Amino acid sequence: MPRRGGGVKAGGRPADHPGTMRPPVLPILLALCVFAAGCSTDEAAERGAAEGRLAARLRIEHSGEDTLTFTSPDAVAGDRQLPEPIRRALRQPLESWTLSWRLALPALRLDQFARGATLNFAAAAAVPYDGSLDGAELRLQHLVVPSPAVWLLVDPFLDLELETSDEGGVRALRIDEPGIAVVDLQARTERRVLDLPQGSCVDGAHWLDERRVVVLVDEPAPGGRRPVLYLVHVAAENAVRYFGPAAPAADARAARTDLDRRFRAARPDLEVAAR
Q1: Is the C-alpha dihedral spanning 17, 261, 211, 194 positive or negative?
Q2: Which residues contact 121 (CB under 8 A, 6 or more apart)?
């Protein structure tokens, strides 16, 4: 895999998310109303208001509605958001990633990701690619993400090096050279298209179509860390950075622990070194 120097600097399988079920809110509320009828007027009013707030919270948490894309006061300006079709296409594939980040950012939604720099990688050098080499074959088995037609591969885990252990397993060793590479199987070439900030952790990638892929990144931020999405357009040879709100370092550690757990669960045959 190509290393430093080839990519553009990016600046200083959902496996286990829970399903959603609608709880029987209405019968509960009706029973509470009957009980409240025997209370004083003030008590009934107070209880009704409290149960109304509870019902509203339950509807948000369990209705299965698209809570990632609605307009709210803390959303970024519309022209800086991810385009709505992309937000909707990403809602389900990114659900487990978003749930992990909500351990640090409880109200996180995709309309809070703000458009940042557009990074051009037209000048990134292409090198010959041979998928039969030991290192490349291991990455094909454990790390790369194929496009829908499988002619393109994205390798977002350039901060991991794979090696075969003495016991015959595969170990992933961490190096602080995070970046993103794209492999063109028809041209038999590979390009390191982006260098990510040092200390970044990549959590996966999702192809929107044959030419666009979104890469999920956990990046350092002042006083903590933040979730970041890179929209990589292979044909246009550029990537747009969308950055989410920052989380304090202590809260971000809880999200990082859960993200690492999901990564290992999705790759049970890979021995990943602890951070």
Answers
A1: positive
A2: 7, 8, 191, 193, 194, 237, 238, 239
Tens-digit pLDDT profile for residues 247-259: 999 999 999 999 9
239 by DSSP, 3-state: which?
Answer: strand
3-state secondary structure of 53: helix
User: Helix (H, G, I), strand (E, B), or coil: what is residue 27?
Assistant: helix
Q: Give a three-class secondary structure readout of 112-176.
A: HCEEEEEEECCCCCEEECCCCCHHHHHHHHHCCEECCCCCEEEECCCCEEEEECCCCCEEEEECC
- 260 touches 160 (CB < 8 A): no
CA 186 remoteness from chain centre = 28
> Which of 241, 12, 237, 1 is closest to 124 using CA atoms?
237
Indicate whether this model's pTM tops 0.85: no
